[in-house]
Amino acid sequence: MKYVGRLTRSIGVPLLMVAFLAVAGCARGASDDQTAQLDDLMNEVASLEKQVSQKELELSSLVRQVGAKEKELDQCKKDQEATKKRLEGMQ
After folding, report:
1. Cα–Cα distance between 74 and 77 in angstroms, integer?
2. Is residue 53 within 8 Å of 20, Cβ to Cβ?
3. pLDDT digits (tens, 9 = 90+) for 62-78
4. pLDDT of the residue at 30
5. DSSP 8-state class, residue 30
6. Cβ atoms within 10 A of the Cβ of 5, count?
7. Measuring CA to CA, how many Å separate 42 from each of 6, 25, 47, 53, 72?
8. What is the Cα gyration radius of the chain?
9. Which of 28, 31, 41, 42 has the fewest CB atoms in 10 Å of its CB?
């Protein structure tokens, strides 16, 4: 999953730049408006990449928490079975 995200980012940003320049046409240089738009897009991409990183960290934390709860549940089931066997032995 992380590989796909990094691959998308590493391909997405340059692809976005190329697409922007292609739309700009064959002009001698980018206008101030186009440069401002490109800067805005680059800033938006950086912001979105930061959000993705934060969500990936959140996901890994949640996965660890689920694993800990599953382990705790397994231990509770084992304890429950052991208690049932002891109770059956008392009767």
Report:
1. 5
2. no
3. 999 999 999 999 999 99
4. 77
5. -
6. 14
7. 16, 19, 9, 17, 45
8. 27
9. 28
Residue 47 is which amino acid? S
Encoded tokens for 5: 């995200």
pTM equals 0.55
Q: Residues 61, 51: contact at Cβ < 8 Å?
A: no
Q: Taking the CA of residue 79 as centre, how many other CA atoms within 13 Å lie in the half-sphere pointing to its CB?
A: 6
Q: Which residues of the chain have pLDDT under 50?
A: none
Which residue, among 54, 50, 17, 51, has the nearest Cα to 34 in the 3D structure? 17
The residue assigned the tokens 């960290």 is 57
Q: Compute the half-sphere exposure of residue 81: CA atoms within 13 Å on the CB side of its CA.
A: 5
* Residue 45 · residue 12 · CB < 8 Å: yes
Residue with tokens 């440069």: 35
In whole angstroms, give the CA distance from residue 54 to residue 5. 13
